[in-house]
Amino acid sequence: MSTAIVWLRQDLRLADNPALYHACKTCANVILIFIDDPLPGSVSRLGAASQVWLHHSLQALDASLQAAGNRLTLRQGSALPVLQALLAETGATHVYWNRVYDPASLARDKQIKEILKQSCTVHSFNASLLNEPWEVLKADGTPYKVFTPFWKAMLKHGIQHLPLPAPEQIPAPTSFPRSLALNELGLLPRTHWDTGMMAHWPAGETAAMQKLLDFLPLGGADYKNARNFPAQHGTAQLSPHLHFGEISPRQAVYHTEAFLAEHPAAESGLRHFIQEIGWREFAWYLLYHFPHTVDQALDERFKHFPWAEDYVENLEHWRRGQTGYPIIDAGMRELWQTGWMHNRVRMIVASLLTKNLLIPWQEGENWFRDTLVDADLASNVLGWQWTAGCGADAAPYFRIFNPILQSQKFDPEGEYIRRWVPELRARDNKQIHLPRELGDGLTDYPLPIVDFKASRERALAMFEQIKGPFARSTVQ
């Protein structure tokens, strides 16, 4: 009888899983494996917060598989020899996987496919994007670098795809191969700091779909506006579920369109929600076509940007949420405690780090990758380069977010700040947005680590060194 190995990575779900679906259609036996691969780009090589999420996601997936009469096999080691050993052990005739698009994994997977197809059938599929990165190009065959024309081309190409159902049966082998216990992967920390973080999150496919279905009627209509206010529950918070493939973007779009068909009043908000899924798509599209942007600026002129060199102390204050700017400190503490940060606040904290402190964007990207449960490589890189002004879709002037103005506009009652910066809770709604030097005589909250106005002017001057005088600059 034919046996298929399904190699799972960032597709930890049963529904809309092409590799699993086709394996079940083709073969009499199906073995599902997750490999804790030492490759730097591997999902198991992510930061500490994401590894915690991965542990719980694998646990949820195994429970779903056992309910369907199968189970998850766990192994450690380089993917190729692990797969070769499993082929020899089981006599499998087919290997299926869903593609991942980071540069390291693409190179590895290409090599694995070339070697394995000499002895068995190998198929790979798209399970994590609306369309393949090579399917949407400009008329001259080159990739887009600006989101709006990219998204228009995507919509023209088509983003609505009928998700595949979960297999009716996942046929199990007569005997399962040897598997590590989940705890043997060492994804959980020894100090148990993760308990508080995961109290904010349910992981797994069922939780992901429920979160989407709850969001559509409760927050969909007002999403375009509410998503800017960090104290509100105005976002879907699907990003970690999308990152680990507990839900696919095709499922998200499909269910959103189905909801819109019956609730047209939610059109404005949910079209914006779908567009945000498009930004995730754009991030992976750029990383595929410009793989050097993993750690280098897309804008080559930034090779000459005079970043700060002695910044260890300022970086540590920023990481700990001790900058003296309330909205920024609230965001950094939210990140540390929950593994997540509101998107608008991500832009504000990134702006201070790169523009006012002149700390290289890679430092912030590395910290986010280690502390975010949704540490999606492509989206993280895109966001940091966008804010630093060195990536795709950057405006022709230096965006600088004023943390005081942003706080006053998007947290007017100080609710978000009070939630995460308890030493400021006694301040009134006017003073709570202000650094200590502009507020009351509080002494248990730090003074600003940098003068915003002076550091803004310094940044603009340095920006001109590499880009020349520019027509306008803004403070947002």
Can you walk through the features of this model?
- Helix 7 runs parallel beside helix 10.
- This protein folds into 3 domains: 3-127, 3-Layer(aba) Sandwich (Rossmann fold); 129-161 and 204-289, Serine Threonine Protein Phosphatase 5, Tetratricopeptide repeat; 300-475, DNA Cyclobutane Dipyrimidine Photolyase, subunit A, domain 3, CATH 1.10.579.10.
- It has a 5-stranded parallel sheet with strand order 3-2-1-4-5, with helices on both faces.
- Strand 2 (29-36), helix 2 and strand 3 form a beta-alpha-beta unit.
- It is globular, with a radius of gyration of 23 Å.
- 46% of the residues lie in helices and 7% in strands.
- The chain has 19 helices and 7 strands.
- The protein is of the alpha/beta class and 476 residues long.
